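Hello, quick one for you while I still have it in my head. A protein chain has come my way and I'm curious about its shape. Can you walk me through what the tokens say about the fold? No rush at all, and the record is pasted right below.
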Amino acid sequence: MVRFEVAEEPSPGVDGERFCYAPGLGLWHGRTSANGDIVVGEDQLRALVAKSRAGEAFAHKLDELLGANWDEALEPFRHAGDGAPVTWLHQVG
């Protein structure tokens, strides 16, 4: 089964983006800041508060916004890090 994570690095004045897919979870998308943190917008937080007043429901929905389940599912497949060799499958230039 296919699983993937694609990240666009942020550039000056523009947030980055991250797309994750894991079997059973589907596709997740989030914006990222310059340091790689997930950016949750004010409107997203207001909607979250309005829809889930109970603590456990709020925590669950916040985890969804942050992509926690996708991180957990994809972590065993993340091998690269600073200084690790990179294999380009396709590079547009």
